[in-house]
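Q: Could you fold this chain for me?
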Amino acid sequence: MPRGLFISFEGIDGVGKSTQVKLLAEYLGEAGREVTLTREPGGTELGDSIREILLHSKGHIDARAEALLYAADRAQHVALEIEPALAAGCDVITDRYLDSSVAYQGAGRELGHDEVRALSLFAVKGLLPNLTVLLDLSVDQAAARLAGTELDRLESEKAEFFEAVRQGFLSLAAAEPNRWLVLDASLPPAEIAAAIRTRVASLI
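A: Sure. Below is the predicted structure, expressed as structure tokens.
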């Protein structure tokens, strides 16, 4: 049986990933393909526990401890959810994957691109998405979208942190243009979805 497509969505908080994940799942479903939606951190019972620690812990979490927690979540996620679904021929769409760690912990926490990427690749046994969609938006615009909502531990970081993360994502996309699709997240959702569908159609 042919393996399913593996597609990840990335970007700083507030760019609209959840909306585009759902729209792409609908498109693939209408095309007769089986689709699994998942997210990081989370996606498994262990992952949900780690998510609670990472996003809602009131105490300080050391940057390296944070990176290791994300890696542990990701290892479990791939082993129990992503890899079995792909092997069964199911398309997998995930809201965040290892590139988030490289951007958030590698760039935002200044732990280093190479170190965090190596840790993440070890956790997932080298599994990379067929396509990674980066929804790019200025830090100010993203913050405006989140205004009035309850922010988690990471969403509460300062603008300087998110600018470093944003630039980290853009650097990753520039280094692997064949895997990445970078889109302006300020465009209308329908226009963004159409661009994603066009790229995905070329992979089917």
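A (continued): The domain at 6-201 is CATH 3.40.50.300 (Rossmann fold).
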